[in-house]
Design goal:
Elements: H1 6-26, H2 39-62
Helix pairs in contact: 1-2
Length: about 60
Amino acid sequence: MNFDLRLPIGLMFSVFGLVLTGVGVLHPELCERSLNININLWWGLFMLVFGASMLGLAVANRQK
């Protein structure tokens, strides 16, 4: 059985990252409560990059 855990982790983080990035872009007024740092945008981008890297590693491992 050849199951790579990076694939579902990458998908999950990519989807959550897209949602958080969308909230950060569409609702910038929410950052007033967090010292004017758009935390949804920054964490969404971080999660999106992490998810994309996990997906890239999973795809690269499948091609071997």
